[in-house]
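Thread: Modeling a multi-component assembly for a lab meeting

Hi all, long-time lurker, first post. My supervisor asked me to bring a structural picture of a complex we are working on to next week's group meeting, and I have zero experience with this. I have the sequence lines for every component (746 residues in total). Could someone generate the structure of the whole assembly? Inputs are pasted exactly as I received them:
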Amino acid sequence: MAKNNNHKAVSYNKWGYIFLIPFVVVYLIFQLVPLISTIYNSFFENYRSGLTQIGPNFVGFANYVKLFEGGEIWIYLKNTMIMWIMGFVPQILVSLLLGAWFSNPSLRLKGQRFFKTVIYLPNLIMASAFAMLFFTLFADGGPINAMLVHAGILKEAYSFFSHAWSARTLVAILNFLMWFGNTTILLMAGMMGIDPSLYEAAEVDGATSSQIFRKITLPLLRPILIYVMITSLIGGMQMFDVPQILTNGTGDPMRSTMTLIMFLNKHLFSKNYGMGGALSVFLFIITGILSMIVFRFNKATDGR
Amino acid sequence: MKKQIMAVTLTAAMLAGLAAVPVWADDAGSDEGKVLNIYCWNEEFKTRLTDHYPGYEEVDGTHGKIGDVDVVWNITPSDDNAYQNNLDETLLKQADAAADDKIDLFLVEADYALKYVNTDYTMSVADLGITDDEIADQYQYTKDVMTDSDGNLKGLSWQGCPGTMIYRRDIAKEVFGTDDPAEVQKKVADWDTFKATAAELKEKGYQMTSTVNDSYRVFSNNVTSPWVVDGKITVDDNIKNWVDMSKEMVDAGETATYELWSDDWSKGFFTDSNVFSYFGPAWFIDFSMSADQDGSVGKDGGWAATEGPQGFYWGGTWITAATGTDNPTLVADIMRTMTTNVDVMKEIVTADNDFVNNKPAMEEMAADESYGDAVLGGQNPLAMFCAGADKIDLSNMSIYDQGCNEEFQNAMKNYFEGNATYEEALDLFYKAVVEKYPELSY
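Re: Modeling a multi-component assembly
Sure thing. I ran the full set together rather than chain by chain. Output:
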């Protein structure tokens, strides 16, 4: 009998492994191999000057030294983080609010399906198309400036893309608009997974709705919140298309909207795989560290 | 192989000389490729070929036919370097590509011509059988652009691109009391008077130029040293002069800081703007100033041209044969027809208002009272262009020109807008150039 049981367990394990194969194969080919080759490439001088290929020559850590030499990389990291936070904070607040409203049965919101679709729509537009639209809207001679001047709010056109904070704000707004729908759907799913009897019990005990939100919804939503934060963080670190299109690739003014990936893109003009690799490894490490911090932070408070 | 090509091209050249029939009709069909791959970045050359090359039939947007040879157009826009990226990848694979997939002919611009000219990926026109005598009438600078470090000529152009200052007649009349090019020229004879005139225009509510970048080329074409000397990036004094003048003009509100080709920049093409002038060559007047649109200044011939403070050139398209082409005869014939055939070239002038690369023909047309450019209110600007084309000096070109020019204008925008000091902006420029060309230092 015992022997029989054992045999069964082994055969289940086998199926488990078989079902894992597709993922592992895809992971190996499309994730692990590129990751390792990126690290490998970062130790070589390897670029193209005109039509002449230079390298690859092994140069040790020379690319890393060059990367940190001027200290600009920290500025680009700071820019990336600033623009991510500026977009993420309103995004998570609005998403929580909308999620709470949508998942609250006592509100009986009408047209939920419609609104859920509408808030998700910006995500379906290509980021570059969206950025182009904003670029035209906020140009010196664009409609926003024309409206502000006509309404008497501004005396003359304001160059949104020539001031660090207005340019960053536009990037953040674009990212916020594109991603809050997605976050709302995720948080809503998390909220609907909370046992309704907890809400009922709280109501019977006379808790106010804000108390319910803080004491029941938020704590039970934590796993989803961590997931949202980490995915958004990784997405934010890789911010590229919106600021690239919005500033024509320059990261102006004075590279205050230059993100790490835009900087990476600069090296691709000369097919500089060495510097590109070094920058990617740096990005990999930073993303890893930040994800760890978010994870640990949430786990620690979870333990109580 | 090279000998074979030589033999074929020489025979073809002789045949072409003897019989007036186009070469492709009876000869090229036998041993040359049936597909002609052309790489370029816009429709300009295609239009020229369709309109002026005898025997070219258009099949659809990207295909044509010359005799029994299929012409395949591979058009990639220049934006974000896409054209060159695409061209580079294909050229690097050229040696291994099937005969019908090889690039036969591609176009380059002056800013990056040396990048291709100084390599083995381009064929010398002598190897195509085109002799020095045939191209003796072409402007010398158009040949200098395409001459590699060993003195081989690698490509030809049908156009010359000397520039002029193009100004609005109505504004000139209002502010200076005349729109006569000779009188207006006195107002912009050199950079000091140019600046004084800008102040005069500002008082009446007009801007001298649409953006600082309009005058950039006029300065950068008159430098005394190239961008890169012995691997070190250097900023010429004349470029610095541009920075100083531009900064003062921006601060005084006499011009703006838009990028060339942006919407804000091109608003000046229309009558409801306050932009007085642009700098540009013939193709700019005909091709870029929205003259076909209602409400544009050019529609009613509201522009006029004058020499401006200094001579310059802008752009120009050169035809070059890719090494390994299987259609050398046809490529040579296209080059000959488009860049040396006087009748075809005169046709291009009258039909497209282009300035063609043929000195005697242009000088003859410059004296022709009956020719006039409608966009310029019937003015014949060719004499100005002729004078300009003779003066163009390209001795300070380098393969880094495109990247340096672009990055310099981008970086200086920060200085003009008050977001950085000159030194900070200069530092940004150096960094951006080294990112593009890692082999350089500063």
